[in-house]
Specification:
alpha/beta; Rossmann fold; 5-stranded mixed sheet; 3 helices; about 25% strand
Length: about 130
C-alpha cells in the first residue's frame, strides 16, 4: 500500500477521547522504548510524525494517526520502566485495556519485542491477554 497521507489526529487520556468513527485501527504495543513510535515513523516514511525519545515513557497517552484518510495507526504507551509520575504510569494499563477490549475498530495489534532480551512476564502476559480477547 502506498502511503499518500498520514496525520496526527488526537491523543487520548480517557476512553471518551477515542475517535468515534468506524475506521479500522492497527495498534502498536510493547514495553517502553522498544521502538513502537520509530516503527510507525518508518512504515509511514516519516521522520518526525510520531514523537520519539531516548527517555522511556515518552508516549503517555494513546495517540491516533490517520493514514490515507482510511484507517488509523495507534501508538500505545509502553509498559515497564518509564520516566513519568507513578500516578500517570498507573493510569496507562486500565486505559490500554479498555481501548483494546472495547474498541470494535481495532483490527490488529502489532506487538514489538526487544530482540536483545528474553520476553519477560509482562511481554508474555500481553500476548496471553491478546490471545484471550482476540
Amino acid at each position: 500500500m502506498k502511503i499518500l497521507s498520514a496525520e496526527f489526529i488526537t491523543s487520548a487520556a480517557s476512553a471518551k477521547q477515542f475517535p468515534s468513527d468506524a475506521r479500522q485501527q492497527i495498534a502498536f504495543a510493547g514495553r517502553s522504548n522498544v521502538g513502537k513510535s520509530s516503527l510507525i515513523n518508518s512504515l509511514l516514511h516519516r521522520r518526525n510524525l510520531v514523537k520519539t525519545s531516548a527517555t522511556p515513557g515518552k508516549t503517555q497517552m494513546i495517540n491516533f494517526f490517520m493514514i490515507n484518510d482510511q484507517f488509523y495507526f495507534v501508538d500505545l504507551p509502553g509498559y515497564g520502566y518509564a520516566r513519568a509520575p507513578k500516578r500517570v504510569v498507573d493510569a496507562w494499563a486500565p486505559l490500554i485495556e479498555r481501548y483494546l477490549k472495547d474498541a470494535p475498530q481495532v483490527r490488529a495489534v502489532v506487538v514489538l519485542l526487544d530482540a536483545r532480551r528474553v520476553p519477560d512476564e509482562r511481554d508474555l502476559r500481553l500476548l496471553e491477554w491478546l490471545n484471550h480477547y482476540s
